[in-house]
């Protein structure tokens, strides 16, 4: 058994796979547990892979017995916000009930450090200014509520069992491995930048933009894009703080700045030199005009130093991967 083993649940997915490479580069051994419902076997390249479900106690017992797990990074969830409105029980079952099973496994095996992928969707509404961690949490979708519920469960679990957790509330994860080995491959894809790139590659006839009459600088929604490598950096800083005996907590991970949908399209046109046809549609229910996070607390307390704050760097790394792997990961 090694003394550097970190369990990454959901490590075959977009953010989890980048996390594993980041861990590996810094001398850790990422152990991936993923059921591959949304992830890709080919994205697991940096340590052992166990195909299994966090909802299965026997699988967890086997993993926690076989490896000397120092901490858990939790990326395993369903993530499609509109689908969570249509089939909420699927989301509560996986994102909440299966997380409780994971926590029970950790308690059984005395593993007491967790980094949880939460979301800015726990805030729900915003007045458009950068949100800090004490912004009221009033999630407006089942997906957002699943993340908010787990955050509250973690507070209770910490006081009862001493399991310390850091909840990282991401804004919009984007970009790809700067070396071009890993990228974003959700099926179906629901995130803006890969959809724009697929349109640039001619894999889609046009890009649908939902709403151009929002009270923003050009009428389209403003979102805060954060590079996946910077997310990985924040996770490791949070984990190392727990490993050193530090406290848990809740942190926003955003750029503190945002880009409109039109701006992202224009920047992608510049980088790809493609025309990217656009079709404007009605607003989607549940979309809010502006979601921007203040990450001052993560910078101050975790020592987080994002390296890819520039939108061009985010789009370029994503474009680089999609150009190399236009059909995504092999199945
Ligand atoms: N992508 C974003 O912009 C974003 C923003 C905020 C929060 N998050 C959160 O970050 C995490 C990772 O997101 P992502 O974009 O990488 O998603 P993803 O779908 O690419 O990765 C999730 C992974 O978890 C696995 N998984 C799901 N349920 C599982 C289960 N029961 N047992 C084992 N494995 C399971 C999937 O197979 C997949 O590989 C999620 O928890 C998501 O809610 C993502």
TrEMBL record:
Assembly description: Homodimer.
Keyword Isomerase set for record: yes
Keywords, ordered alphabetically: Carbohydrate metabolism, Isomerase, NAD
Coiled coil (UniProt feature): none
Start and end residues of each NAD-dependent epimerase/dehydratase domain: 6-254
Cofactors: NAD(+)
EC number: 5.1.3.2
Protein name stated in the entry: UDP-glucose 4-epimerase
Pfam family, one: Epimerase
MF terms (GO), sorted A to Z: UDP-glucose 4-epimerase activity
Enzyme type, top EC level: isomerase
CDD domains: UDP_G4E_1_SDR_e
InterPro entries named in the record: Epimerase_deHydtase, NAD(P)-bd_dom_sf, UDP_G4E
SUPFAM superfamilies: NAD(P)-binding Rossmann-fold domains
Catalytic activity annotation: UDP-alpha-D-glucose = UDP-alpha-D-galactose
Family that this chain belongs to: Belongs to the NAD(P)-dependent epimerase/dehydratase family.
Keyword rRNA-binding in annotation: no
């Amino acid at each position: 058994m090694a003394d550097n083993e970190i369990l990454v649940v959901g490590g075959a997915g977009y953010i989890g796979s980048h996390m594993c490479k980041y861990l590996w580069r810094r001398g850790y051994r990422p152990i991936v547990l993923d059921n591959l419902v949304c992830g890709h076997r080919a994205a697991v390249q940096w340590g052992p892979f166990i195909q299994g479900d966090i909802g299965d106690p026997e699988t967890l017992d086997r993993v926690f017995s076989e490896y000397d797990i120092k901490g858990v990074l939790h990326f395993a969830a369903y993530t499609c916000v509109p689908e969570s409105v249509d089939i909420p029980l699927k989301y509560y079952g996986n994102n909440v009930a299966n997380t409780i099973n994971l926590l029970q496994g950790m308690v059984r095996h005395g593993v007491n450090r967790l980094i949880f992928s939460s979301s800015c969707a726990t805030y729900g509404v915003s007045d458009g200014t950068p949100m800090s961690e004490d912004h009221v949490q009033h999630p407006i979708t089942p997906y957002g509520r699943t993340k908010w519920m787990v955050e509250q469960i973690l507070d209770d679990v910490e006081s009862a069992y001493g399991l310390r957790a850091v909840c990282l509330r991401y804004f919009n994860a984007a970009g790809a491995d700067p070396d071009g080995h890993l990228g974003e491959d959700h099926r179906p894809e629901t995130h803006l930048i890969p959809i724009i790139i697929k349109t640039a590659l001619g894999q889609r006839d046009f890009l649908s933009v939902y709403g151009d009459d929002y009270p923003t600088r050009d009428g389209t929604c403003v979102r805060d894009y954060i590079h996946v490598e910077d997310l990985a950096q924040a996770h490791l800083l949070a984990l190392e703080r727990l490993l050193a005996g530090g406290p848990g907590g809740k942190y926003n991970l955003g750029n503190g700045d945002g880009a409109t949908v039109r701006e992202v399209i224009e920047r992608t046109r510049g980088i790809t030199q493609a025309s990217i046809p656009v079709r404007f549609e009605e607003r989607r229910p549940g979309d809010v005009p502006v979601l921007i996070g203040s990450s001052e607390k993560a910078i101050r307390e975790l020592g987080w130093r994002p390296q890819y704050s520039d939108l061009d760097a985010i789009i370029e790394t994503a474009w680089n991967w999609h150009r190399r792997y236009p059909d995504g990961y092999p199945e």
